[in-house]
Design brief:
This protein is α/β, with parallel strands linked by helices and about 280 residues long. It has twelve helices and eight strands. The mean pLDDT is about 95. The chain binds NADPH dihydro-nicotinamide-adenine-dinucleotide phosphate and (2S)-3,4-dihydro-2H-pyrrole-2-carboxylic acid. The site of (2S)-3,4-dihydro-2H-pyrrole-2-carboxylic acid has 4 residues, from helix 7. This is Pyrroline-5-carboxylate reductase.
Length: about 280
C-alpha cells in the first residue's frame, strides 16, 4: 500500500523520530522516507541510525506525497512559510503539533491543501501508541485512511472532531508523563519504605504494565478492578483513604484542565506572535 509513496518527516525530534522509526519497524523501507531537522549533528545521527535520506525542508516538500510536520507549535509558521511555495501538488500535510488548529495551517498553505491534525503519544516507540486524528476542510476519506495506516504502524488510531483535540492532548498526548510521574512517586515511596531501588523499580513497572493489560484484556471498569484489590479493612483501603484525603482525584482533573488550557493557549500564542 505504501509503494510509490514518499513520506517526509519535517522536524525529526522526539516525536518525529518516533514516527520514522515506527514506520521502519512496520516494514517501510528507508527509501520510502525522507526527513529534516535543523541541526546537522541530529541529521547525521538519524541518517546513521535509520539509513533515511536527510534533506532540506524545501526538498522534502517538493518530493513527498505525505508531509508529516513535527516541529514545536512556535516553529510552525517558519516551517509552513518555507514549504508552502514548493509543496508537491496533491500532497497531504499531517500536523502533529499540539494546539495548532487546522484552519491556521490551511491558511498558510496553497488553497485546497489537504491537512490532517494528529495528537500522537510516545508509547508509539514500543508500538503501543494512541493517536487521535481529525480531518481538515479539504481532506477526504482516503487521506484519513492514509494517516490511519501510517499511525497504525505504532499503535491505535481514533478519528475525532477537531474540537476534541485540546482535551485529547491533555489525556493521551501528555498522559504518558502523568503515568511516569506516578511510577516515579511509587518507586520513591518504595525506597522510603526501605526497599532497594532496583527492586522497587521492578515491582512498580511490572505492576503498571500488568494493571494496564488487565484493563485492556478484561474490559472491566477500573472501579471494579480497584474494588477487587481492596479487601475490607485491608492495606489498599488504607492507602486509597490517603489518596482521597490528599485530593489526588481532584488534582488529576485540575492537571488535565491545565493541559487542555495550555493547548488552547499554544494556538493563541502562535496566532498572536505570528507563528501560524
Ligand atoms: N513529545 C511528545 O510526547 C509529543 C509531542 N507532540 C508534538 O510534536 C511536536 C514536536 O515535539 P517534540 O518532538 O517533543 O519536540 P522536539 O524539540 O524534540 O522536536 C522538534 C524538532 O524539530 C526541529 N525543528 C524546528 N524547526 C525546524 C525547521 N524549521 N526545520 C527542521 N527542523 C526543525 C527541532 O530542532 P531544534 O532542536 O533545533 O529546535 C527539533 O529537533 C510538537 O509540536 C509537540 O506538540 C505531540 C504529541 C506528543
Ligand atoms: O508537552 C507538550 O506540549 C507535548 C504535547 C503533548 C505531549 N507533549
Amino acid at each position: 500500500m505504501t509503494e510509490g509513496r514518499l513520506l517526509a518527516v519535517l522536524g525529526a525530534g522526539v516525536m518525529g523520530e518516533t514516527v520514522l522509526s515506527g514506520l521502519l519497524r512496520a516494514g517501510w523501507t528507508p527509501d520510502q522516507i525522507i526527513a529534516t531537522d535543523r541541526r546537522p549533528d541530529r541529521q547525521l545521527e538519524l541518517h546513521e541510525a535509520y539509513g533515511v535520506r536527510m534533506v532540506s525542508n524545501a526538498e522534502a516538500a517538493a518530493q513527498a506525497d505525505t508531509i508529516v510536520v513535527v516541529v514545536k507549535p512556535q516553529d510552525m509558521r517558519a516551517l509552513l512559510t518555507e514549504i508552502a511555495p514548493v509543496l508537491k501538488p496533491g500532497a497531504l500535510v499531517v500536523s502533529l503539533a499540539a494546539g495548532v488548529d487546522i484552519a491556521s495551517i490551511e491558511a498558510q498553505l496553497p488553497e485546497g491543501t489537504a491537512v490532517v491534525r494528529v495528537m500522537p503519544n510516545t508509547p508509539a516507540q514500543v508500538d503501543e501508541g494512541m493517536a487521535a486524528i481529525s480531518p481538515g476542510a479539504h481532506s477526504e476519506p482516503h487521506h484519513l485512511e492514509r494517516v490511519t495506516e501510517i499511525l497504525s504502524a505504532t499503535g491505535r488510531v481514533l478519528t475525532v472532531p477537531e474540537s476534541y483535540q485540546d482535551a485529547v492532548t491533555a489525556i493521551s498526548g501528555s498522559g504518558p508523563a502523568y503515568l511516569f510521574f506516578v511510577v516515579e512517586a511509587m518507586i520513591e515511596a518504595g525506597v522510603h519504605l526501605g526497599l532497594p531501588r532496583d527492586i522497587a523499580t521492578e515491582l512498580v513497572v511490572q505492576t503498571m504494565l500488568g494493571s494496564a493489560k488487565l484493563l485492556r484484556e478484561t474490559g472491566e471498569h477500573p472501579t471494579v478492578l480497584r474494588e477487587r484489590v481492596t479487601s475490607p479493612g485491608g492495606t489498599t483501603a488504607a492507602a486509597i483513604r490517603q489518596l482521597e484525603d490528599h485530593k489526588v482525584r481532584a488534582a488529576f482533573i485540575g492537571a488535565m484542565e491545565a493541559a487542555r488550557d495550555r493547548s488552547r493557549q499554544l494556538a493563541e500564542d502562535a496566532r498572536r506572535n505570528g507563528s501560524v
